[in-house]
Specification:
Layout (H helix, E strand, L loop, with lengths): L15 H11 L4 H40 L4 H19 L8 H7 L3 H4 L6 H16 L7 H18 L6 H16 L2 H12 L8 H19 L14 H31 L3 H8 L1 H19 L7 H8 L8 H15 L6 H18 L5 H17 L2 H12 L5 H18 L4 H6 L6
């Protein structure tokens, strides 16, 4: 008599019902599949948008450079008028586009779906992009990286709405981080920026989402722009003895200067002193006065216009630069940032940091100039944004100076600690409160 074996417990047969269930859960019509497609399409679009925005900003900067060289005194009139006009347009038509863009993305996490109608709406970011380019075209000391973060978050929100899937705060984090990665061609910095700044409470389940978005956006941007290093392959290094002497000073000076910038920014945004009340009561006039400060510095020095990329790169490669560049760029960036027009502070802050390093190189004539300048950039940037890991990775990826990693980490953490004594609240977190959704 043949033996009969009962079906093993837990055995699963591929029945038509199971196929239908699988299709419902993971097929093209499922929420999971559409979510993945929204992230994939969004990341590709972010890479392309970041590339186009970068090229447009570089072109605008070059156009202003030619204008300022040909009509030396004209910016004294044009720049203040432009500042006033841009602030009026921003306040009248796209008030949520003012400033960097990073605080908006942080505030948007509280209610992502609602934020797509305001903080990260396509109307807001299109105005943001146009007004930031106009600011660059007028010589303002602004960067494109902060606006790229807001644009990237809006693109992620749009793809999710088009594909009809729920939008989570994690998606905005992924989009913003991908924007940083595509703007600088620094994927690791994008990931760390998401952890340190964009996400106040970073969740482990977000990791793969962020990494995927960063990787895709970075590859698309790199394919469009070519495999380049933002400041060029510097490969700076420093002997341990020199590092022990330079790093503590760079960390303290960068932390004090960066913390001072952050405190002044927060005072202008959230303070209740007499000057702040006056500036808020007369925003257009205040913006014109800020533009006049920027124009006077630019006309007087010829170096403080725009992002400061050219001057920063020159100092990194060892070209002699005036010692006053750092303080002058600091004032130009502060005047631009508090004026209320759209634009970021990433690139200008790196330029100020290069100026800080240039000052320190005069104190240590026997040490490699490139390394000291990079340490100044790391320390000042960490002091401003209070994201030391991001500061180190950005500079290591944008200069290919991985041999300087340990001194950079030390300078960044010292600067972060010192900055806390000057400004207890993180800059972007403080600014995000001014965009809080009610």
């Amino acid at each position: 008599m043949a033996e009969t074996h009962p079906p093993r417990s837990g055995s699963r047969r591929w029945t038509p019902a199971r196929y239908r269930a699988l299709l419902r859960a993971q097929g093209p019509g499922s929420v999971r599949f559409r979510t993945r497609m929204a992230i994939l399409i969004g990341a590709v679009a972010i890479g392309l948008a970041a590339t186009l925005f970068a090229e447009a900003a570089d072109l605008a900067g070059e156009m202003f450079g030619h204008f300022a060289a040909r009509y030396h005194w004209a910016p004294l009139i044009v720049t203040p008028l432009l500042f006033a006009g841009l602030v009026w347009i921003t306040r009248r038509f796209v008030p949520l586009a003012r400033g960097s863009g990073i605080p908006q993305v942080m505030a948007a996490q509280a209610d992502p779906e609602r934020a797509t109608e305001g903080l990260v709406s396509m109307r807001t970011v299109m105005g943001k992009a146009a007004l930031t380019l106009a600011a660059v075209l007028g010589g303002a000391s602004v960067g494109r990286e902060g606006p790229t973060v807001q644009i990237a978050a809006a693109i992620m929100g749009l793809t999710h709405r088009l594909l009809g899937v729920p939008l989570r705060g994690a998606v905005l984090i992924a989009g913003g981080a991908a924007g940083v990665a595509a703007a600088f061609n620094t994927p690791l910095a994008g990931l760390l920026f998401a952890i340190e700044e964009l996400a106040s409470a970073y969740e482990q389940k977000v990791t793969l989402l962020v990494i995927a978005a960063i990787a895709i956006a970075g590859m698309v941007a790199q394919s469009a722009q070519g495999d380049y290093v933002y400041f060029g392959v510097i490969g700076a290094h420093m002997p341990i003895v020199s590092a022990l002497l330079v790093v503590p000073v760079a960390g303290v000076v960068g932390g004090l200067a960066g913390g001072g910038f952050a405190r002044l920014m927060l005072m202008a945004a959230t303070g209740t002193n007499r000057l702040t009340r006056w500036s808020k009561a007369r925003p257009i006039l205040f913006a014109a006065l800020c533009g006049l400060v920027v124009a006077a510095l630019g006309v007087g020095t010829g170096l403080t216009w725009g992002t400061g990329y050219g001057a920063a790169r020159a100092m990194i490669v060892g070209v002699d630069a005036p010692l006053w560049f750092g303080p002058a760029k600091f004032l130009a960036t502060l005047a631009t940032a508090v004026a209320g027009l759209p634009g970021g502070i990433f690139a200008p802050s790196l330029a100020v940091g290069a100026g800080v390093g240039n000052l320190l190189s005069a104190i240590y004539p026997g040490s490699p100039v490139s390394a000291i300048v990079i340490l100044g950039m790391v320390a000042y940037f960490a002091g401003v944004v209070r994201a030391p890991l991001t500061a180190v990775i950005i500079l290591s990826e944008t200069t290919a100076s991985r041999g300087l990693m340990l001194p950079m980490f030390a300078a960044a953490f010292i600067a972060d600690g010192v900055s806390q004594y000057v400004c207890r609240e993180k800059l972007y977190h403080g600014l995000s409160r001014t965009f809080a959704m009610r």
